[in-house]
Amino acid sequence: MLVLLAGIFVVHIATVIMLFVCTISNVWMVGTSSLGTASSGLWLFCNRTCEQLPVSSDNEPSLRAVQAFMILSIIFSVIALVMFIVQLFTLEKGKRFYITGGIMLVCWVCILIGVSIYTARFTGNMPGFANSHHGYCFILAWICFCFSFITGILYLVLRKK
User: Fold this and answer.
1) How many other β-carbons are positioned within 10 Å of the β-carbon of residue 4?
2) Exposure letters 33-56 (e unless 16+ CB within 10 A, then b)
3) Cβ(84)–Cβ(33) under 8 Å?
4) Per the UniProt record, which residue ranges are transmembrane (predicted)?
5) What is the pLDDT of residue 46?
6) Which candidate, 19, 13, 40, 158, places its Cα nearest to that of 96?
7) What are 109-140's pLDDT values in tens digits?
């Protein structure tokens, strides 16, 4: 049981770190042109130097929603981690980690909404660049989606023994 708790805790910490990395870093889309390789993220567009992400007025609310949901997912993941530690030391034997699991599933929903909006609105949206493809941040966000769902369900099922 202790090994299972430690494993879930490690996966949860890895999820928090990957959420930070994929939200802060600017490699959600990567494209190449005659000027070189460029990448765009949630905040900046980087070619040789980084500048504010150029977004049309039609896509600006979508980008703000993605930014907000990714930040919310980080917040909920950190809150779930703190709640797990609190519940680990305060729960009685035989009780389940319902609060931690519920908060982690809210984090999962925030990741789902944020990455789905990005997928629908911004995939392949690098005008003037050929061979645009997803960067590592986009892939990390989907990995965090899977990890947060698994840990949320495991927290709901897990009992303190």
Assistant:
1) 11
2) eeeeebbbbbeebbeeeeeebebe
3) no
4) 7-29, 65-85, 97-118, 138-158
5) 85
6) 158
7) 999 999 999 999 887 766 667 778 888 999 99
